[in-house]
Design goal:
There is one protein chain. The chain has eight helices and twelve strands. By secondary structure, the protein is of the alpha/beta class. It folds into two domains: about 140 residues, Rossmann fold; about 110 residues, Dihydrodipicolinate Reductase, domain 2, CATH 3.30.360.10. The protein has a seven-stranded parallel β-sheet with strand order 3-2-1-4-5-6-12, sandwiched between helices. Strands 8-9-7-10-11 form a five-stranded mixed β-sheet, covered by helices on one side. Strand 10 and strand 11 form a beta hairpin. Helix 3 runs parallel beside helix 4.
Length: about 260
Amino acid sequence: MKPALIVNGAAGRMGKRIVALACENGQFEVVGTTDYTEHPDLGKDVGPLAGIEPIGVKLSADFPESAAVMIDFSLPQAADASIDYCAKNGVALVMGTTGLSDGQLAKLKDASGKIAIVQATNMSLGMNLLFATVGTVAKALGENYDIEIVEAHHRFKKDAPSGTALSLAEAVCEETGRDYPGSLTHGREGKEATRQPGTIGMHAIRGGDIVGEHSVIYSTLGETVTISHSAHTRDTFARGALRAAEWITGQEPGLYDMQDVLGLK
C-alpha cells in the first residue's frame, strides 16, 4: 500500500510541484492538500491547480483524519498547526518551510520525541553536499581567508537572508569556532564599512524569477575560492522533499535532516 501523503501549502509554487510530482512518480497516495482558510481556490480539485489531471482531492483548510506523512512548504505562521496535527496523529513530517522562529524550532524538537521529522532549509542533493563541505573548506583554508555568502532568489521570497544561506553560515561557524549568529554581517553601507576579521558577510539578492543561487566565497590576498550551487527549477526541491517523505516513513521518532536522508552523515 502506498503511504498516504498530505501536502500543506499545496496551492503555493512549491506545493503545486510537490503534488504534481507525487502523482507522477506514483510512490504516494495524495490524501490531503491544504492551504490557508481564505485561499480563493479552496474546494477545487488540486490536480488542475497543479497543472495535471483531476485527482479527486480538493484543496482544503482542514487536515484529513489520518495520513502517513506530511510535507509542509507553507509559511511560518502555518507551521504550528502542522506540527501539532502531526504530533497528535502520529504523522511523520517533512518540514521545508523556512523562516521559523526559535520557538517553532523548539516545538519541532519537542515533537520529534513522538514522531519522525525531517527539517531542512533546503532539500536539494547538491545543496546538501555544500552543507557537508563548506565548513571543512573554511577550516582547511584558515582564518586568513575572508568568507562571504551571497544568495539570490525571486522577487516574491519573503525572508532574507534565505534559510539556506543561514545554514551555510552555521556550518562554517560550527567548523571554525565562530559565533553564530553573532559573527554575521548583513550587507554593508556607509563610509566606515571596512570588513572586520572573523566575520561572515551575508548578502541577499531578490529579482525576477530566480529559483535559487548560493555562493560561498573564500578570499585572501592573492586568490579566491568560490563554491556555488544554482537551482534551475523548483522540481529540484520538490523531488528532494518527496525523497525525504519516502525515507522518513517508518523511521523511529527523532529530528533528522537531509544529510540523514541522503546518507551523508
